[in-house]
């Protein structure tokens, strides 16, 4: 087991207050005791621990995603120190690949110069056009943020040498095609769509199959576009690659391991931050950069379950014909205070509907001789549901089920 990517919280607060934010507006309020910014000594400890880990696991490249809160709340000087400190690991033969996720409102020319210098891939969080974005992405006074994000995007477009990506939470009250066209007109090179972070304790708010209807409408529109009008939609490309048996780097699809950890501003090494939606201090492990190596975190059951989340599937997922594509869904979306993680995703029906739809559309576009050669077959959503119902009673309880259930509140 090893870690190959870190989400690093260089700032633990945000300049806005999105209503759905898993950091500030869900069960876990532990950010309140975190320092607002990462100190220089913690950045230096981070460098040392990445170096030790890469050397002991023969890794010559390592991903670092700057995150917050809002990472651009850090001063330009502090960000430059962070980037230069980690970049200097190339002297030890380690190439750090940087990315940043930001709400984009604070981007300046000076930031762009840093992004250019250190090849930082920048993703902007935005939920569509002004009307849709401003439903939930609001500032602390309740005002919409779209216009200010757009100003930041314009600054980035003027001064950055690389195109921006976009991270967007699906709002099925919006038109998927309007949203796609809004992103194209803003010039994003990739669109990363996220399902709203919900689990079994909160899912009542999300009507069944609404996300599938929305995503299928977008998929059909996007899939039929000519190449030069097609902006990369990572979720769809991942599913298509997985249907053809390729790997996906996504944490929420496929069969690979999740080799990612999170660093808080005080140097704490934690599990995936979205797991904060499962409860207060849910991701805390008492591991810290100043006292631990990354290998120490594998003692934690939560790290183990997250790392192996696409192997540790519940019985329904083990019976599911698309589990090698779906991967059982995103781990935070599987949680219930009753069963821990021994559940399919709360979005199971949406995922099954979407994946079978994509598979059938892709098969429809293949030449007949290839379909015959590969023996690839269509599978409707209804057939998949029936197959699961037939197979489920024959699946024994997996040995790891107790570990998945150990996170239930009764344990
Ligand atoms: S920009 Fe990100 S960190 Fe800030 S409130 Fe919105 S979702 Fe949370
Ligand atoms: S579609 Fe549902 S049952 Fe199938 S793997 Fe995904 S979450 Fe599990």
From TrEMBL:
Domain spans labelled Radical SAM core: 1-229
Annotated signal peptide: none
Pfam families given in the database record: Radical_SAM
Gene Ontology MF, one: metal ion binding
The keyword Metal-binding is assigned to this record: yes
Database matches in CDD domains: Radical_SAM (cd01335)
Cofactor field: [4Fe-4S] cluster
Top-rank taxon, per record: Bacteria
Keywords of this entry: 4Fe-4S, Iron, Iron-sulfur, Metal-binding, S-adenosyl-L-methionine
Keyword Iron-sulfur (UniProt): yes
Record SUPFAM superfamilies: Radical SAM enzymes (SSF102114)
PANTHER family: ANAEROBIC SULFATASE-MATURATING ENZYME HOMOLOG ASLB-RELATED, RADICAL SAM DOMAIN PROTEIN
Protein name as annotated: Radical SAM core domain-containing protein
Organism annotation: Chryseobacterium shigense
Taxonomic lineage: Bacteria, Pseudomonadati, Bacteroidota, Flavobacteriia, Flavobacteriales
